[in-house]
Amino acid sequence: MNYRHDFHAGNFADVFKHVFLARMLAYLARKQAAFRVIDTHAGAGGYDLASEEALRGGEWRDGIGRFADLSEVDEAARELLRPYLDVVGRLDADSRPALYPGSPRIIEALIRPQDRATFCELHPQAFAELRGNFRRDERIACLNLDGYMGLKAGVPPKERRGLVLIDPPFERANEFEVAWSALKSAHAKWPTGMYALWYPVKDAAALARFAKAIAQSGLRRVLRLELAVDELAAGGKLARTGLILINPPYVLDEEAAILLPALAQKFARSARGDVLREWIAGE
What we know:
The chain has helices at 12-28, 52-57, 75-88, 103-110, 124-134, 147-154, 175-189, 204-215, 252-267, and strands at residues 36-39, 46-47, 100-101, 116-120, 140-143, 162-166, 194-200, 222-228, 240-246, 274-281. The longest helix has 17 residues, at 12-28. Strand 6, helix 7 (175-189) and strand 7 (194-200) form a beta-alpha-beta unit. The protein has a single domain (5-234, 248-278), classed as 3-Layer(aba) Sandwich (Rossmann fold). Helices cover 38% and strands 18% of the residues. Helix 3 packs across helix 4 (103-110) and helix 3 (75-88) packs across helix 9. It is an alpha/beta fold and 283 residues long.
């Protein structure tokens, strides 16, 4: 409840997560049939990188700020980045967008008139901003409740197609266990849905246990993507982040093979930058 994303908005982990969110939404929009997006930890929706909080954190400078010059990024990667970059918009002289889009802004921009979205946010101030940002959009429902409860109530959606984004702040020591339990329950009710669980890599042992639990769960088509910008150091700045993707679009693995090296090149803080792309269960 104490977490505020304003300090971290636009950092390398945000860009990584949002690039792949945009790719999945673009894939869903290939078919005419409507789809639903459920964002379990939506936040405020958008972030002013000139705010006191963003300037104090300054993490966006090593994130979206590095996208001011994409001249060295190859054409294939730039094309895959386009849906995300179109939502971000033009960067100013300080390498900032007018407003950095959180996942709700990206979802709002990339869903169509027939599609729907549900945004859950528990933090009272963040929810007030979220509701204010999207109250005029009839496609979007904003719910002031725990995202895991919202997920439990929201699946399967009547649209039968769609994506769940689970993006918790990882303030709790057992967040992996809580998120995994919610994801398994949702998947049991809606096995054809697409799921994306974002995580920061802070505890390699906890992450290894989590990946093992997924591998042994019986789930199929689970893709793991990770981006490291530096060596992992206890108590240091976030240096590695990842996504667990269940039922990802069939093209996403190939797209990740192009995007991950491009993102690593842009965001590396040292020679210890690295990427991971593996099928935990069944390709």
